[in-house]
Amino acid sequence: MMISETSKGKFITMEGIDGAGKSTHLNWLADFFRSRGKTVVVTREPGGTRLGERLRELLLDNYQTMHGETEALLMFAARREHLDKVIVPALDQGNWVISDRFTDASFAYQGGGRGLPIQKLEVLEHWVQGLFQPDLTLYLDVTVELGRQRTSAIKTADRFEKERDEFFQRVRECYLERARKFPQRIRVINANLPLEQVNKSIEETIISFCK
Ligand SMILES: Nc1ncnc2c1ncn2[C@@H]1O[C@H](COP(=O)(O)OP(=O)(O)OP(=O)(O)O)[C@@H](O)[C@H]1O
Ligand SMILES: [Mg+2]
């Protein structure tokens, strides 16, 4: 696998708990770059490849039980495939890649949410991606209450969404902790605000990133 020094495109990831607005703003972001002449590949995790999407179905299936470590391993297995088949080839061709979730989500959900030791996740991270990291991560920070309000209106809960508020509280705290740990890469966007305002702050962040 080729690693980022040789890449010409940029890799941007969107993170946040369910209902933060990742999908909504991701589409806007893709249009923003396309209108500036970039070729953009939009993808998501878990998923992004044929195998990854099949793993996603299992991971989100309410009737599927699994050990927390199995969950983490499947997430990273899907990611290995995603990097190999989609992300790295696209970056090598000079495309911009925007992913709806990436490795920060494994730390937040399997680490923060499920309570797996961070060191174990770091082993998987290193195994699957070496030193490769997104060029920029937009973390859309929303309260658990508001996130839940936004998603419950539009779909039935999947295997993660049916978790209790405490679970999402831990996920959110873990995301915020990572944002403090990697302030250069992870930008926190206040996603509790109305759509237009969230959009404005994403736009400002992106414009300063592109300078
Ligand atoms: N800032 C906002 N103000 C009001 N509504 C919003 C805001 N952001 C998103 N929404 C609405 O909340 C719903 C969930 O947003 P979206 O699907 O983008 O979230 P998500 O982060 O992708 O969630 P999931 O992780 O479940 O995919 C959508 O109906 C969207 O229009
Ligand atoms: Mg979404």
Explained architecture:
The protein is of the alpha/beta class. It has a single domain (4-210), classed as 3-Layer(aba) Sandwich (Rossmann fold). The protein is 54% helix and 12% strand. The protein contains 8 helices and 5 strands, in the order βαβααβααβααβα. The chain has helices at 22-34, 50-60, 68-92, 103-113, 118-129, 144-152, 165-181, 195-210; strands spanning 11-15, 40-44, 96-100, 136-141, 186-190. Strands 2-3-1-4-5 form a 5-stranded parallel β-sheet, with helices on both faces. α2 packs antiparallel against α3 (68-92) and α3 runs parallel beside α5. The protein is globular, with a radius of gyration of 16 Å. The two termini are 29 Å apart. Mean pLDDT is 94; it is low at 1-7. Bound molecules: adenosine-5'-triphosphate (ATP) and magnesium ion (MG).
Main attributes?
about 210 residues; alpha/beta; Rossmann fold; five-stranded parallel beta sheet; globular; disordered N terminus; binds magnesium ion; Thymidylate kinase; EC 2.7.4.9; Thymidylate_kin-like_dom; ATP-binding; kinase
